[in-house]
Amino acid sequence: MPRALHHLDLWVDDVEAAEGEWGWLLAACGWQREDGMLSWQHPDGTYVFMEHSPDQHGEHDRLRPGVNHLALTVGTRAGLDRVRAESTEHGWHELYADRYPHAGGEQHVALYLASSEGFEVEVVVGD
User: Fold this and answer.
1) Which of 97, 114, 105 is nearest to 25 (CA)?
2) DSSP letter at 12?
3) pTM for this entry
4) Where's the VOC domain (predicted)?
5) Is 17 helix (H, G, I), strand (E, B) or coil?
6) Which of 61, 68, 78, 95 is buried deepest, with most CB atoms within 10 A?
7) In CATH terms, is domain 7-53+67-125 a member of 3.40.640.10?
8) Does the structure show a pLDDT above 80 at 36?
9) Which backbone phi and psi does 33 adopt, to 5 degrees?
10) Residue 10: band (very low, low, confident or very high) from pLDDT cuts 50, 70, 90
11) What does each C-alpha distance from 47 to 12, 72, 90 come to in angstroms?
């Protein structure tokens, strides 16, 4: 079956900070950095490309029309717990910490994080 999403372009204000935050998180979720590029590829072929574009204007606000958040997967609950434990030292801030790991409902096991630029990522156990 072909992948559902081909790629995602992520526009950021601070490439250096975002590279550290996103690079760590994507690697923790099984993505591989592509040599010499600000790009990470998932084993299914989907990739995320990061850049600061001269066409950007204004700050990112996930609460405005557009993409609210990105959801990634990890294979196990132990992997999710590891991402949670290490996220702060990599620039991420946990959202809904008081409801971890069921902030999305009792049957949903996930971690919600926000980057320093306010991008939200939901890390979900399994498919």
Assistant:
1) 114
2) -
3) 0.91
4) 4-126
5) helix
6) 95
7) no
8) yes
9) -70, 135
10) very high
11) 16, 12, 21
55: left (phi over 0), alpha (psi -120 to 50) or beta: alpha
Q: What is the pLDDT of residues 93-125, one digit of tens each?
A: 999 999 999 999 999 999 999 999 999 999 999
Domain definitions of the chain by residue range: 7-53+67-125
Quick one: CA torsion of 68, 72, 73, 77, rounded to 10 degrees? -70
CA–CA distance, 59 with 61 (Å, rounded to integer) = 6
Q: What pLDDT, in 10s, does the model give residues 69-98?
A: 999 999 999 999 999 999 999 999 999 999
**How deeply is 87 buried, as exposed, middle or buried, from its count of CB atoms within 10 A (0-12, 13-18, 19+)?**
buried
Neighbours of 21 (CB within 10 A): 23
Structure tokens at 55: 């066409």
- Which tokens sit at 89? 């030292």
At 123 the three-state DSSP class reads: strand
Residue 20 DSSP SS3: helix
